[in-house]
Amino acid sequence: MDEQPSPPLDRRAELSEFLRTRRARLKPEDVGLPDFGRHRRVPGLRREELAQLAGVSVAYYTRLEQGNGRNVSAEVLDAIARALRLTDAEHAHLTHLAKPKAHKKKQSARPQQVRGALRQLLDSMDGIPAYIGGRRTDILAWNRMAAAVFGDWSELAPQERNWARLVFLKPEYHDLFVDWEQKAIDIVCLLRMDAGCHPDDPRLSSLVGELSVKSEDFRRLWATHDVKEKSHGVKRLRHPLVGDLSLQYESFRLPDDNEQSLITYHAEPGSASAEALRLLASWGTDATRAGATTPQ
């Protein structure tokens, strides 16, 4: 029996909840407004306060927060973004939700392809764990060192090579990341941004639905409606073979496909983590196979 496609994400509901949660996190004193009274019936700013800050009518803002973004101008969205103190990523997400671009459903569902030259580049990065990430937090291609550090993804079915599935459904990855909660937050934020750009993507809808059913942590984090992008930082791992690793990561969007990114990890020269990476590299395929017995 064929699996029924998941319904698309409700863009109007997404817009409504995003604006409501952004408004709820602000207090009057955060935006220079007086707080007249202790008994506020709603957390954060009232709709009329937000409308005042954005310079729009209460009725207009109410319609927008109810999910009706039809005919809203870029200038109004900019004013609301400023009033809500949105980050650049949140501003972009609001724009995608309120003024969606026309996307072909077939294009959204089409598998992403990694250019052969990029695969060669990954293989040439000896000693540097690196992979290509795509939409829906899919892992599209990786090198030998990435397999040694994170587990041999080649042993997984293609649909399972996905960070959201690994982080929320595989207990081994809960042990791998020292700050698992932050990794989980980062993954959900990326999925939220993807949902804003591609609400009609059936594979994304199916992934969100599955994770919502199977993971209480995912349901909790998905309900926050947080979005953000992280292009660099430090990731701390507890590797089953070499112990603790502190790796700096960099993420580079591909110029010819902004829905794919090259992510690399490196250790500070002379550090214990650098020595651990050299040890993993010297083990070669043995390290890859050993690592695959844990996170996979």
Summarize this entry quickly.
With 296 residues, the chain is an alpha+beta fold. Helix content is 48%, strand content 13%.
Give your account of this protein's structure.
The chain is α+β, with helices and mostly antiparallel strands. It contains 15 helices and 5 strands. Strands 2-1-5-4-3 form a 5-stranded antiparallel β-sheet, sandwiched between helices. A hairpin with a 2-residue loop joins strand 4 (243-254) and strand 5 (257-266). Mean pLDDT is 87; it is low at 289-296.
Output the strand order for the largest sheet. Answer: 2-1-5-4-3
What is the radius of gyration computed over CA atoms, rounded to a whole number of angstroms? 22 Å
Mean pLDDT: 87
Main sheet summary: 5 strands, antiparallel
Shape: elongated
- Provide the succession of SSEs: HHHHHHHEEHHHHHHEEEHH
Structural class assignment: alpha+beta
Number of DSSP helices?
A: 15
Strand content: 5-15%
Number of strands: 5
Helix content: 40-55%
Distance between the termini: 28 Å
Regions with little confidence, pLDDT below 50 for 5+ residues: 289-296
How are the SSEs ordered, and which strands pair?
Blueprint: H1 11-24, H2 47-54, H3 58-65, H4 74-83, H5 88-98, H6 105-109, H7 116-124, E1 130-133, E2 139-142, H8 144-150, H9 163-169, H10 171-176, H11 180-197, H12 202-214, H13 216-222, E3 232-239, E4 243-254, E5 257-266, H14 272-283, H15 285-292
Antiparallel strand pairs: 1-2, 1-5, 3-4, 4-5
